[in-house]
Amino acid sequence: MADQSAKLRKLGIEREDGLVLHLPLRYEDLTRVTPIRELRAGELAQVEGEVVRSEVSGRGRRTLVVELRDASATLTLRFFHFYPSQRAQLAPGNRVRAWGEPRGGLFGTEIVHPQIRVVRPGEPLPQRLTPVYPAAAGIGQAWLRAAVRRALDVADWDDAVPAACSAALGLMAPLAALRLLHEPPAGADLESLQQRTPPAWQRVIFDELLAQQLSLRRAREERAARSARPLANTALADRLRAALPFTLTGAQQRVWREIGAELAANRPMNRLLQGDVGSGKTVVAALAASQAIGSGAQAALMAPTEILAEQHLVKLRPWLERVGARVAWLASSLKQAEKRKVRAAVAAGEVDLLVGTHALIEQSVEFERLGLAIVDEQHRFGVAQRLALRAKSDEQPHQLMMSATPIPRTLAMSYYADLDVSVIDELPPGRRPVVTKLLAESRRDELVGRVRAAVASGRQAYWVCPLVEESEALDLQNAIDTRSRLSQELAPLSVGLVHGRLSGADKQSVMEQFTRGAIDVLVATTVIEVGVDVSNASLMVIEHAERFGLAQLHQLRGRVGRGVDDSVCVLMYRAPLSDTARERLRVMYETTDGFEIARRDLALRGPGEFLGARQSGVPLLRFADLERDAALVDAARDCAQRLMREDPQAAHRHLQRWLAGREAYIGA
Ligand code: ADP
Ligand code: MG
User: Fold this and answer.
1) What's the mean pLDDT in 557-572?
2) What is the pTM of this model?
């Protein structure tokens, strides 16, 4: 059976009975025969008739043309490539069933490359729809159908759900539901199967959500049972707080109380700090780091891009060094020798806070006493990467994650049930709402005039360059071109440029000139996505706004609206827009509320990107849809609670079936 298990692994299946969850993509309805005369172009159908002509025509690339006749009419079957065996099956006089999509051809109705089967007259039709499975190279439908049928026979899946729950929800028995979905009876409603609304689907979706809830609870219990080093000395954090040039907002004070208390406890913190762009999460992270350091531990801060990480460094370093902490930087762009030096210092305990990118989680990085791991924009990391940072310590470090992308409720409930969440729901004083305008690229000249007018009245502006997919080099060239074009159009105004390839010092120098007003208009790649703070800049233009994601647009827009002037963000787009791009721009136009934007982003993109599932390659929910199935999420959560209490064995069996080795990812 080595061959069998190799094939299963290729499909991502660990156990033989796991195939029962390998559900069809769609079905073929071979339970019916349609008279040829009633075929409709574009509608898949099966016909049965006698071959009356079979010819190979054409030189070079040969075509097999077959004429099939039933009592109502004749039909052409056309094969642009074919095997000798097919040609033999389609010999005149043979009775054949053909399945495919009819279309109107020059010489009447035809089907190109139908599936065919020779039949005896009167041969009975199948009683069930034929499943079409997600396949992989070297794994055909015939093999899958047989293997699934076997798996359904051997699977010994009792109902793990307490009878009280399944009765209340009217749930089908699990195997009956799966059997039905693999091979629905003739006459089943394909449309509703596709929508996943029939009871059989509800059962499967419920079971998947239940497995997720169970594993989250288990992760939480396991974490609660582990101990962590308490980081209770607040002296350093108190000093840092006193040295800040501003007082914390009420919301910052509240979340800092929550986080500070948890760090002081002997159980590992696992907390997500949410706050809209500019709400001041970094200060809270700095306080957390200083409490860890003041208590004798090391801290690490990991951000998904070098630019982001660097901005944290620029902000955190002066704060923390002022209170005597040693801060170091690690990113893949460092020279080998420098990296080695930093790693040695970290391992020797001579660094208190290490800031960087995923260079931090490379094998070779060892901490002497990591007590706190801070992960910024956590959803942009793969789950495996987050686990790797946590594993950098023999003891369980406390973990603080930060996100400016608020997580909608259903998502939080189902994916982050193991996380405690703190929310900064208040912006520092003095922020003003930003007016958003949409403008077609054809009106660019007008816009340039508006930028000039803004500068004439003493303001400054950002001009954000379009993203060029997958190419940093093109992004850069684009930015350089945009800058020189704007320099001409706006002369004699001063137009600066900042992008990711500038050295830290050059970047800082450009930003410094912009901050003191020596640069009027700053052309930028998405470098300014975060952390830049120039209150006199009250106009932002985003070129090719249709290429940006919602979270990115929201982050960018958050750079204006920080001063006393009314701010404007112009989203310039190039028509024609795709439906999704149009919808994204609409969302940006209609709201500035980060939570609302996140909710609509979820509806547009699905949960994968919020969770980093895409990067890690682990499909977390295969069947459930958190928007559509929100009610089942609630039910599954209640049921999980009950099951853990009343029948832990059944809970375990259920998890084994559904997760088969992927548990570690769920609670990350
Ligand atoms: P976030 O990371 O949440 O987007 P930051 O931590 O970068 O936000 O803070 C945005 C800006 O606001 C920074 O310049 C920061 O110094 C400033 N800031 C943070 N907290 C306050 C506060 N309580 N009062 C005034 N300014 C603040
Ligand atoms: Mg930030």
Assistant:
1) 87
2) 0.65
